[in-house]
Amino acid sequence: MPTPKTMTAEEAVKMVQSGDRLHWPCVAAAPEHLIRALVARADELQNVHITHLYTEGYADYVLPQYEGHFWLDSFFIGGNVRKATQAGYADYIPCSLSDTARIIREGHQRADGVFVMVSEPDDEGYVSLGTSVDCTLAAIETARYVIAQVNKYMPFCYGDARIPMSKITAFVRHDVPLIEPEFPTLSEQDITIGKHAAALIPDGATLQIGIGNIPNAVLAQLGGHKHLGIHSEMFSDGVLPLIESGVIDGSQKKVDVGKHVATFLKGTQKLYDYVDKNQDVLINDVAYTNNPAVIASNPKVVGLNSAIQIDLTGQVCADSMGTKMFSGSGGQLDFMLGAGASEGGIPIVAMPSATAKGVSKIVPTLTEGAGVVTPRTVVHWVITEYGAVNLFGKPLRERARLLTSIAHPSAREGLERAARERFGR
Fold first, then answer.
1. Is residue 89 part of a domain?
2. DSSP annotation of 367
3. 262-to-83, 230, 331 alpha-carbon distances in Å
4. If we measure between CA atoms, which residue out of 202, 197, 220 comes closest to residue 406?
């Protein structure tokens, strides 16, 4: 198998021409060394179009001074590009993550070039995309050139992450430790929400669980469970104690039995060390991990998601604050649909009852312009620190009563009044 030519980042990014469309992977797998070299060429380039999911760290290509040189249309808005997107220097593509690979493969957003970060090659001539496949595999399949930052710190992950070196146009050697998040201490509110959610999770469940205080709080309550599995958009360090203790073994799954499945990872070095050369972990194409039909093929799927607002009928906004885009649809609807169709599945929306400023997240109507990520027809369980209620199959008045019962006490009187005005009596 031929080995791609090795060159410097400055040499490699000369492949990029004005008008090209580029893609790179998300979170810890974003190849910052290559991205910085690209931005250094800004004066030589015009109208270079970029797509990616959520990334962290360096993202200068969205700064106002690079307008006309670079343009980002993200599939999910991370904190590093949020202000630029809201100010009009970048944009967002509304979609479920399950569709992102299709959007690229069908040419709705083409990829002329791809930047990736990969592991050291194995003895068979393969490298690994490591901690993130997401929709990057689709971009690799369709691009004219693929520039790979080879990083000894990138774990060698299996599944769709393992690709032949023949897919790579050029190698750039740059070793740097991967991004590691900081995990805040769980609050009493987080722990209470975690207990409510954990009480709904049966033994043998397949978990979709992400990163953040509430997912970590849920995982912390599952030590007494048995035979849990993982089929998720992503997972982080919170699963490791449960894997090590045997609580998560994947033995009750019907698809990828015994395997821990995700499309990207975000965690500490401990997580990266665990997944390195671990054939029990599969990092797969997002078109597979987030496909509701695949998700539903496992029994007792628990889909755990969050919300910015929920109205009294059960509509979930998770992507915007009114008309202002904040994040994106992500995989929420993928897993709400998949869990809902799974035998014994449990779709959950879990959130604090109020914002840090004391504003109720359960509202009479969504803020004008807010996006509905999960429609009321799909919502099942809603959890706050005040309890858990199941809206599925319930009429509107009953939904309003149930949601009011788990709202912040300061908001309940107003919600009751709004429900009477809306539904009568």
1. yes
2. P
3. 29, 8, 12
4. 197
Provide the pLDDT for residue 162: 98
- Alpha-carbon distance of 85 to 208, in angstroms, equals 28
The verdict on 353 and 258 lying in the same domain is yes
2 pLDDT band, cuts 50/70/90, is low
The mean pLDDT value for 10-38 works out to 98
Same domain? 161 vs 210: no
The answer to whether residues 67 and 49 touch, using CB atoms and an 8 Å cutoff, is no
Percent of the chain residues past pLDDT 70, beyond the cut: 99
213 sits in the region (left: phi over 0; alpha: psi -120 to 50; else beta) called alpha
263 near 134, Cβ under 8 Å? yes
Which residues face 73 on adjacent strands? 91
Residue 1 predicted with pLDDT over 90: no
Q: What is the mean pLDDT of residues 106-113?
A: 97
Residue 275: Cβ-neighbour burial (10 angstroms; 0-12, 13-18, 19+): buried
Separation between Cα atoms, residue 249 and residue 158, nearest integer Å: 18
Question: Per the residue annotation, which of 182, 188, 233, 421 is the catalytic one?
Answer: 233
Q: Same domain for 149 and 258?
A: no
Mean pLDDT of the chain: 97
Give the pLDDT of residue 211.
Answer: 81
- 91: containing domain: 5-173
The whole-number pLDDT of residue 183 equals: 83
Query: What's the average model confidence in pLDDT over 293-299?
Result: 98
Of 173, 171, 167, 128, give the one whose Cα is nearest residue 277. Answer: 128
**Dist. CA 122–CA 117, nearest whole Å:** 15
Q: What is the pTM of this model?
A: 0.96
| 233: annotated active-site residue | yes
Q: Is 93 left (phi over 0), alpha (psi -120 to 50) or beta?
A: beta
Does residue 159 sit in the same domain as residue 205? Answer: no
Determine, yes or no, domain membership for 182.
Answer: no
* Beta bridge partner(s), residue 163: 127
> In this structure, what is the dihedral angle of CA atoms 159, 162, 166, 168, given to the nearest 10 degrees?
120
| Assigned token pair, 212 | 């953040």
